[in-house]
Amino acid sequence: MTPELAAVMKALTQPKSIAVVGASRDPRSVGHGVLKGLVHGCVFESGSCIPYNGIVYAVNPKAKDVLGKKCFGSLKDIPGSVESIVVAIPAKFVPQIMEEAAIKKVKVAIIVSAGFAELGVEGKKLQEEVVKKAKAGGIRVLGPNVLGLLVPPNNFNASFALTTPEPGNIAFISQSGALADSVVDWALQARYGFSFLASLGNTADLDESDFLEYGLDDRKTKAIAMYLEGVKNGKKFLKTAKKVSQTKPIIVLKGGKTERGGQAIASHTGSLAGSYAVYQAAFRQAGVFSAESVEDLFDLAKALASQPRTQGKNVAIITNGGGVGVLTADYCAEAGLNVVPLKQKTLEKLEKSGKMHAAYSHNNPLDLVGDALPDRYEAAVNTLLSEPYIHSMIVVQTLQTMTDSQKDAEVVVKAHQTYPNKPVVCVFMGGKYSAPGVATLRKHDIPDYNDPLKAVKVLKVLSSII
User: Fold this and answer.
1) Of 306, 375, 384, 440, which is most buried with the most CB atoms under 10 A?
2) Listed residues 303, 321, 349: the one ending a domain
């Protein structure tokens, strides 16, 4: 990042003071939601409220206080300095707010208000007026028409999302605020953590490339997931994505692949979708991975954020269920991964462990048989990971009476710590009784999926077979 952009992003993601223009007493309003997000919107696993530690001001000329915060009639009435503002008022009044913000020497504005370029010619004119006034006052703008910005590691929720997901190592940059809001709700249930979530809206000023630059420099971010509909400055995006992807993986879900989808984009953010084939070529050129669905986007991001890239295509499958092993082998073959036959020396090591069942498969997939206890998994996982000709591993667990999900997970975690240069992904099938093991895997950044096809997809990406 340039020093100028770094200063903007610091003011945006961890402002010393922030004002909500349009703070409302109505709990159903956007202005109320934004203020609530800053005052007590960060609720993590413990259930405790963690307010943002900067100074938070409320601006509403028709109220004395909202959510315990004194209300000021305007930005000019606030006695202290204001580094950042969130604007949640009707679009026609936003230009005036930019004038007041310039007087107040505000650095950045998050405009959640809708009613701009997405509405057509008149809305575009209004948006241009807002940006012109903001630039004249030295103010950078996120939006308009955004959900807002969330930075969980900073307890920062400048959005009208219901709450904040847990801190994590994946950034999400989205041109759809509603999609980002839904992702927040899903992440709470799935225990999926984020370094930041940025809703871009109409990208009248700050855009996807600026947030890619921020993600590159952000130490908490290990991978960047994006939902994109269109890119206004293609050269800037391509140059930035090329640079960022050399250090941190980028995964993009592209909206507007079809003619009908492209038409819908115009009324969503006012952007032009462009040819999907052109975007695909640009993504490949920039080293960007493509996702096919929202679920696929975050499955890939989870693996790319936590696992090393493979040194080859040879994958080992370890399972206590023969049928699931067969399916996994089929998926690997279809994905171009090699389910390599186990060498005689490897089989001898397994035999010498004294842990194998007499009926184990003696092949890859390595079927440990249904009564496999953690010690059998331990012998198998460590033996196969130690072999130079095996480049990656899928560990499958199905549920029987004797299955110990928790200890099986601990075996995988310890083995991966011993062999950190080989990617390991898990398929701990089931639900309630697999939950303790899945929680342990997540805690130690071992990707787990409920379907072997998902595990194979991420290994395909980790093997750079796109």
Assistant:
1) 384
2) 303
Sheet holding 223-228, edge to edge: 156-159, 148-151, 194-199, 167-174, 223-228, 250-254, 289-291
Same domain, 299 and 328: no
pLDDT confidence tier of residue 262, bands split at 50, 70 and 90: very low
Identify the bridge partners of residue 19 per DSSP, sorted by sequence position. 57, 85
C-alpha 355: how far from chain center: 40
One domain for residues 22 and 87: yes
Question: What is the radius of gyration, based on Cα positions, of the chain?
Answer: 25
- CB-based contact 423:307 (threshold 8 Å): yes
SS3 93: helix
* Domain edge (last residue) among 303, 324, 341: 303
Look at residue 323 and tell me whether its pLDDT is greater than 70: yes
Strand, helix or coil at 357? coil
Is residue 54 predicted with pLDDT exceeding 90?
Answer: yes
**pLDDT at res. 157:** 94
Domain that holds residue 313: 308-462
Same domain, 315 and 169: no
pLDDT digits over 133-182, tens only? Answer: 999 999 999 999 999 999 999 999 999 998 888 899 999 999 998 899 89
Tokens of 367: 């079927």
- Residues 312 and 206 reside in one and the same domain: no
Measured in degrees and rounded to the nearest 5, phi and psi for residue 111 equal -100, 105
Does the pLDDT value for residue 270 go beyond 50? no
- Sort 359 into a burial class: Cβ within 10 Å, 0-12 / 13-18 / 19+: exposed
Helix (H) or strand (E) holding 436, with range, is helix 435-443
**pTM for the full predicted model:** 0.91
pLDDT tens per residue, range 424-462 = 999 999 888 899 999 999 999 999 999 999 999 999 999
* Same domain membership, residue 317 and residue 295: no
Structure tokens at 313: 């295509």
CA distance 47 to 314: 44
Using the Cα atoms of residue 195, residue 201, residue 207 and residue 209 in order, give the sign of their dihedral.
positive
Say whether both 291 and 312 belong to one domain. Answer: no
Whichever domain contains 264, its CATH number is 3.40.50.261
Residue 260 shares a structural domain with residue 328:
no
- Indicate whether 278 and 183 sit together in one domain: yes
